[in-house]
Structure formats: structure tokens, C-alpha cells
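Sharing a chain and its predicted structure for anyone who wants a worked example. Both blocks are below, sequence first, C-alpha cells second.
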Amino acid sequence: MSTIRGSWALVTGATSGFGEAIAKRLAAEGCALAITGRREDRLERVAAEIRREHQVEVATLAFDVRDRAATERALAQADSLLGKTDILVNNAGLALALDPVHAGSPDDWDQMIDTNVKGLLYVTRAVLPGMTQRRRGHVVNIGSVAGHLVYAGGAVYAATKFAVRAISDALRYDVLGTGVRVTNVEPGLAETEFSLVRFGGDRERAASVYKGVEPLRAEDVADAVAWAVTRPPHVNVQTILLMPTDQAGPHALHRRQG
């Protein structure tokens, strides 16, 4: 096990769910943080909680990863942070609706592709040069079991997560010999705001996704990230596919009655 105490991590989409849990878990290991998100009020709340609970330095960067100009501007202004970032966690992402392609919304498709794929690339492009120059660093991408297996109504979301897997795999070739590591963490069913966002705020429909099942928690995914980034420098955990015990795959869930 390697320590990350005193290191700096940049975590995108840190205002809730996986991103918030990952930021707090890394802070618990003594890691300083730069956290990003679209909702500045929530971003500042998370930062305040981390500072209070873990006494580490936290910088906040409010921008939408879909906006390339805003992303480049925010990260350029944070140049001093990028100069010491050892860990990048590309967490920002979402799913929208469960419509078949022939009834789907192109606006939803654009938002998923722009966030899950292009946003990941924009942030990585800004952070990675410093890592390769310093010959150390770790890029952690948050993928999904949907990057391996598709399901009805999930064509575009699955396509974005297949893309995250492809980018992660190819990136290892790009950084080979630089000392930079790349990990793709791929959760199965997890209870966060994910389904609430997917179903446009319909709480009843979102809750039905998890009915009778014990899903993963955001903290489980955060533990996986923390484990990957604390391996010795010569060890690269390439992929972590983690599922709740009640799930064998997207099409197989054990639901308890009552």
C-alpha cells in the first residue's frame, strides 16, 4: 500500500453521489483536493464538510465539463493546482431516460455524450500533460457495467460507457513508459441520484429501480477508487468491475419480496 497523504486529487462531478463520496474518501487518506461541479452552492457545501471533517486543503472549481471553453478556462486559471495534481478522477456523468432509439431525445443524447465522453476528454487533456512531464500520476475513470453489457432503452448511455472503457484502455498505451497509471472503475446497480436524474425527478420511479435489492452505495465505489490509487507505484489496477451481490448483470437482479 502507498500513501496518498499530501498528494493532490482533482475530482469532477463532486457535488453528490460517487464524486462526493470519492472526494471524502480521498480526503480521509490525507489527500488535498480540487473538486468540480456545476452547482456552486453544493460544491462549497461539500468543500466545507471535507475541510471540517478531514482538515485538508480543498479548492473548488465551478464549471460544466460539457463546455470546452469553460473547462479550459477554469483549469487554466487553476494552473498551480494542475502542476501538483497526482490523481484525476473523471467522475462527472449521467444517464437520461430509458427510451428506445426510435423514440429517444437527441437533446438527451447530446447531454450524455457531451458529459460522459467529451467532458472526460476535455479534463484529461488539461491534466495529463503535467502528469507525463512529472512522470507520475493516476487517472481514474468512472465507467459502468453498461460499458460491457447493454440493455433496452440504454443504447446511448451504454455507448458512452463503452467509450469510457475504450478511452481508458487506449490511454494506457499513450502513457506507457511515463509512470502514469490508468484505472477504469465500473459499478453495477448503485443507489445515488443517478435514477432520479435519469427519470427527470420522478422519485417513485427512481425508487422502484432499487426495490427489493440491496444496491451498491457511493461509499463502496469510493473504497474501490481509494484502493486502486493506494497500490504501490509499480502496480496498475486496470479495471474494477464491482456489483452488488444481488446483481449478476444488467438483466439479472435478485429482488426480495415484501
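Comments welcome. The chain has nine helices and nine strands.
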